[in-house]
């Protein structure tokens, strides 16, 4: 039997010891009080199906993002026409992607179109019977839709991270959908409200000269909008909805915020203090300075939170949002403002709530099935292959240690399909050892000595084991790349297990055999 390299011995023992240290906290159900702080303390993270939580399939309404971009284009076109000293009668959005510009009869359409092409190179400008038209290009629309989904993922992730859910899973599904899993969540209703909030913060002036009664009757001026402010509603009382006629034009948005935190006013009521960046502070000071004595409404998702009178110019870039907040409401509002507004509304297409009881049952049944399957395999190997069979069983146990250690170290999720993957890995690891033992048997039948049979058995079985493991690994990686949810959980466990099985069957068992037999005169192997 060839000498086993010392560096392989040190590496193999090191891998086994480290794996046992990393997997022990999981096997013990947590870190005990006597566990030294310098030792690994991470446990295997359990997926949604094992510890319960919330599963949501979200749809991003990308059409709304395109409409909003066209709406923003209205203000930009208006400013560009004024800058170019070009007269116009009206500018409005038509449909989802078009801005229509109505010009006076004596205005030059060609000059307007020329200016639009120079200022808005990514859009399509053309003449119309009444004036000119600016249309978002197909490339621009595609980019807007893609950005809306990508930005929604980032914004929702920021909100969830601040909400306090450990290890959320957030994945893009198709072109407009997002798959969200929140394991261990205790308050699904609050989470759904937090996730789905568009959180578009706007500062608008109140139209004090407008006819509120006429607006309530349905006659709203074209440049105004009718919104409501809720007052009261504490101590179980029903809030009173106060109508307000606001200017439609948004003077300042929450895009320029740098921070939002919960504070308390002089009456001990919860408020949200916001801070603008340098640009926002300058605009806020200019806005409040130009409209001293007027009312300015703070609007979030078309709901007026407060509409105070501007007593003086407000400098320093700080403001407060007050309302009938509970402490929890104020905290959630601060979260969505810090994380930023969603670029488009998000709707829930599918919702599943997994209770912790179901998760506990899944764990118990999964572990039980793994133990039964493993025990049957171990008994078969020990009875049929005797000494080398029990050696293979030890390698299988170490294989499970390695899988648990890697899952704990990477904080990868162990799901119910992942437990099924562990059961499958027991069979894969045993199969590799069966190939080696059968090769050794063949060499012994050919009349070779035990030591020579062992060397030849490992050498000849190596390529077969490598081929089978590589093909299985490739399949697992494809499942991980293109699968979702449970399929990915199964693939993660399988990928880790395939690599560890290759190590335990080829290297670890050979090392153990070498040190068991190296000083003995063995005439017959226990097969």
Give structural attributes.
527 residues, alpha+beta, Multidrug efflux transporter AcrB transmembrane fold, Gyrase A, domain 2, 3 domains, four-stranded antiparallel β-sheet, 20% strand
Walk me through the structure.
- The chain is an alpha+beta fold and about 525 residues long.
- The radius of gyration is 34 Å and the shape is elongated.
- It folds into three domains: about 210 residues, Multidrug efflux transporter AcrB transmembrane domain (Multidrug efflux transporter AcrB transmembrane fold); about 70 residues, 2-Layer Sandwich (Gyrase A, domain 2), CATH 3.30.1360; about 140 residues, Gyrase A, domain 2 (2-Layer Sandwich).
- The protein has 13 helices and 19 strands.
- The strands form six sheets. It has a four-stranded antiparallel sheet. A four-stranded antiparallel sheet has the order 3-4-6-5. Strands 12-9-15-16 form a four-stranded antiparallel sheet.
């Amino acid at each position: 039997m060839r000498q086993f390299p010392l560096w392989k011995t040190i590496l193999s023992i090191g891998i086994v010891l480290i794996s046992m240290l990393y997997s022990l906290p999981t096997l013990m159900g947590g870190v005990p009080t006597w566990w030294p702080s310098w030792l690994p303390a991470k446990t295997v993270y359990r997926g949604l199906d094992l510890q319960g939580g919330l599963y949501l399939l979200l749809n991003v309404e990308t059409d709304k993002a395109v409409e909003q971009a066209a709406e923003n284009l209205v203000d930009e076109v208006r400013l560009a026409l004024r800058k170019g000293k070009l007269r116009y009668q009206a500018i409005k959005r038509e449909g989802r992607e078009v801005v229509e510009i109505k010009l006076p009869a004596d205005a030059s359409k060609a000059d307007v179109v020329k200016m639009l092409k120079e200022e808005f190179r990514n859009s399509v400008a053309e003449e119309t019977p009444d004036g000119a038209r600016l249309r978002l290009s197909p490339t621009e629309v595609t980019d807007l839709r893609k950005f809306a989904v990508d930005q929604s993922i980032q914004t929702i992730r920021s909100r969830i991270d601040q909400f306090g859910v450990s290890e959320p899973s957030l994945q893009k599904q198709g072109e407009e959908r997002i798959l969200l899993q929140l394991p261990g969540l205790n308050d699904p209703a609050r989470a759904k409200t937090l996730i789905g909030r568009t959180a578009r913060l706007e500062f608008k002036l109140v139209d004090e000269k407008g006819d509120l009664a006429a607006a309530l009757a349905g006659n709203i001026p074209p440049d105004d909008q009718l919104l409501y402010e809720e007052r009261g509603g504490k101590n179980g009382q029903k809030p009173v909805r106060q109508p307000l006629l606001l200017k439609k034009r948004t003077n300042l948005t929450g895009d320029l915020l740098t921070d939002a935190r919960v504070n308390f006013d002089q009456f001990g009521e919860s408020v949200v203090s916001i801070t603008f960046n340098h640009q926002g502070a300058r605009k806020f000071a200019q806005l409040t300075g130009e409209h001293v004595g007027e009312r300015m409404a703070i609007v979030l998702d078309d709901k007026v939170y407060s509409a105070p009178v501007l007593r003086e110019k407000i400098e320093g870039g700080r403001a407060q949002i007050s309302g009938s907040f509970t402490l929890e409401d104020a905290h959630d509002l601060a979260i969505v403002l810090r994380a930023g507004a969603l670029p488009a509304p998000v709707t829930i297409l599918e919702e599943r709530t997994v209770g912790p009881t179901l998760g506990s049952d899944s764990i118990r049944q999964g572990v039980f099935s793994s133990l039964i399957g493993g025990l049957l395999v171990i008994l078969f190997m020990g009875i049929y292959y005797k000494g080398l069979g029990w050696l293979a069983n030890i390698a299988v146990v170490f294989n499970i240690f390695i899988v648990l250690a890697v899952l704990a170290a990477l904080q990868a999720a162990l799901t119910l399909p992942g437990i099924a993957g562990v059961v499958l890995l027991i069979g894969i690891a045993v199969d590799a050892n069966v190939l080696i033992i059968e090769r050794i048997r063949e060499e012994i039948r050919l009349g070779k000595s035990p030591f020579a049979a062992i060397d030849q058995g490992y050498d000849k079985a190596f390529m077969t084991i490598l081929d089978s493991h590589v093909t299985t690994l490739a399949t697992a990686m494809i499942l991980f790349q293109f699968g979702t949810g449970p399929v990915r959980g199964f693939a993660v466990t399988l990928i880790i297990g395939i690599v560890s099985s290759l190590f335990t069957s080829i290297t670890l068992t050979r090392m153990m055999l070498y040190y068991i037999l190296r000083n003995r005169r063995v005439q017959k192997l226990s097969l």
